[in-house]
């Protein structure tokens, strides 16, 4: 790819019509891979493509953080209820099931991700 990243051609300044409708109700960049004409990005300004994809990534990151906080609150609820009824804060069998599920979805990095999630979720009660 020899395209110079700082060069913007006039014909590429306006988004493709399908892009506007495809992203009208979603954050910029979200859902791009399932758009009807995914290869149209090849004749867009590369900087615009990257900026748009990064906006989608940033929106997803914010959503993931929101979901992690939601998970932390639910986890705390489980732990508090268990401890209030004579149980322990940690349930290793359940943690193993969580780790197995994440590994099944994402392979070994999924295990690492799940361990980080569990670290965030336990020990806050
Ligand atoms: O599911 C539970 O029993 C929880 O307490 C939640 C959770 C989790 O965050 O997934 C947290 C601590 C336990 O050790 C196991 C799992």
UniProtKB/TrEMBL annotation:
InterPro entries per UniProt: Chorismate_II_sf, Chorismate_mutase_highGC-bac, CM_dom_sf, CM_II_prokaryot
Keyword Coiled coil attached: yes
Signal peptide (residue range): none
Keyword Coiled coil: yes
One GO biological process term: chorismate metabolic process
Keywords: Coiled coil, Isomerase
Name of this chain's protein: Chorismate mutase
């Amino acid at each position: 790819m020899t395209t110079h990243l700082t060069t913007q051609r006039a014909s590429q300044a306006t988004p493709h019509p399908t892009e506007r409708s495809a992203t009208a109700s979603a954050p910029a960049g979200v859902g791009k891979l399932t758009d009807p004409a995914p290869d149209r990005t090849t004749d867009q300004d590369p900087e615009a493509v990257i900026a748009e994809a990064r906006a989608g990534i940033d929106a997803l990151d914010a959503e993931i953080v929101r979901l992690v906080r939601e998970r932390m609150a639910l986890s705390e609820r489980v732990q508090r209820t268990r401890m209030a009824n004579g149980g322990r804060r940690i349930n290793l069998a359940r943690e193993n099931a969580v780790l197995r599920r994440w590994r099944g979805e994402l392979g070994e990095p999924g295990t690492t991700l799940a361990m980080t999630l569990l670290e965030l979720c336990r020990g806050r009660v």
